[in-house]
Amino acid sequence: MQIIDVDTSRPYQVHIGTFLLERVGDICRETCGGERALIVTDSNVGPLYAAPVREGLEAAGYTVDIFTFEAGEEHKRAATYLGILEFMAEREYTRSDVVVALGGGVTGDMAGFAAATYMRGCAYVQVPTSLLAMVDSSVGGKCAIDLEAGKNLAGAFWQPKAVIADIGCLATLSDEQFADGCGEVIKHAVIADPELFELLEANPLTLDLLRANVPLVELIVTRNVDIKRAVVVSDEREAQARKLLNFGHSIGHAVEASENYRLGHGTCVAIGMTAITRAAAARGACEAEIVERIELLCREHGLATTTDRSVEEVYAAALHDKKRHGDTIDLVIPRRIGACSIDTVGLDLFKSIIADGLGVKGQ
Ligand SMILES: NC(=O)c1ccc[n+]([C@@H]2O[C@H](COP(=O)([O-])OP(=O)(O)OC[C@H]3O[C@@H](n4cnc5c(N)ncnc54)[C@H](O)[C@@H]3O)[C@@H](O)[C@H]2O)c1
Ligand SMILES: [Zn+2]
């Protein structure tokens, strides 16, 4: 097992390994205390993994409830979130009780936001079960729900008391769900870790790799958590450095929206990373060879790197990006594998970057 210390304003540890679901109870006892534990999970993950978590929590002395919601991003919204709060209030949970988020990023975001706001904040523990949640969303303390006007528009920064990533849970993801998490893994390698990039070139992170070599998958997840940790610790509330994590996301989010969320987030990030790198290479900001390496690595991980959407469509969607400030937008530009810069560009330039990136002539 690996342990990573995350030294944010409220420090906590990320545990990464196998057979950890059984240990969630003990870790909650050590880090949170309290009498009652609410497991928040979705309709896919609960039937698979809630039982061992519940048993461990009970063995550690907790009275346990389970709140299960219908799986899917469309349920990461106010009605479900309020349902969690009402459930806790009806059962007279106090501020010293604990919420256990058992599931993917949707569960972690929503349970985290419920914990952040229930009685002005109670303890919570993240037990990520998707690859995306293990390498990205469970670390860093950002939690949110979607509003009608857009994704993640109501939320908080609220650090968990612990994160417990049981690699064994990844085995029940579909190939598509697994690949979706790889978009962020490749992103982490490009912004911070050339060795990780080479490791992935030699050993693509797939369900086959999980079946063949669990320790290597554990190592790759650990490297990713460590990259996210380093960025988050240097900039907990996203003043500047944390923006590096948006590599591939300005164009990626725009593609995601213009495709009406039919494509997975990881694929859209792959399209976004390839596009911004192609545009950067066209302007001499990085070597052309990097475009090929990123594109190939995305494909090897089952991620598409092109879109049929037009520049106009993608640009129109990008204008709704909440990361935009008036007439400028912050873009993460790759310089080398493992080193990126954050450049603020005007919207006209951004539009021609999209055109270069998508490989079509700008208007
Ligand atoms: N807070 C952050 O910093 C942050 C960062 C990135 C993404 N996010 C959020 O994360 C969400 C996406 O996360 P996600 O891709 O994990 O989505 P998700 O939680 O919807 O999980 C994807 C699917 O996989 C299923 N699943 C999860 N674990 C499983 C397992 N072990 N076995 C079988 N099925 C399993 C889920 O039920 C769901 O159907 C988005 O809402 C996004 O906004 C948050
Ligand atoms: Zn992302």
How does this model look, in words?
The protein has two domains: 2-172, Rossmann fold (3-Layer(aba) Sandwich); 175-203 and 241-357, Dehydroquinate synthase-like - alpha domain (Dehydroquinate synthase-like, alpha domain, Up-down Bundle), CATH 1.20.1090. The protein has helices spanning 24-31, 45-59, 78-90, 105-117, 131-137, 175-192, 194-202, 207-212, 214-234, 249-258, 265-282, 288-300, 311-318, 347-358, and strands at residues 2-6, 12-17, 36-42, 63-69, 98-103, 123-128, 142-147, 150-157, 162-166, 324-325, 328-336, 339-346. It has a seven-stranded mixed sheet with strand order 1-2-9-6-5-3-4, sandwiched between helices. The protein has a three-stranded antiparallel sheet with strand order 10-11-12. The chain is 47% helix and 21% strand. The chain is of the alpha/beta class and 363 residues long. The chain is built from 14 helices and twelve strands. Bound molecules: nicotinamide-adenine-dinucleotide and zinc ion. Nicotinamide-adenine-dinucleotide binds next to helix 2, helix 4, helix 5, strand 7 and strand 8.
State the CATH architecture of the largest domain.
3-Layer(aba) Sandwich
Write the CATH fold name of the largest domain. Rossmann fold
Q: What's the overall geometry?
A: globular
Order of helix and strand elements from N to C terminus: EEHEHEHEHEHEEEHHHHHHHHEEEH
Overall pLDDT: 95
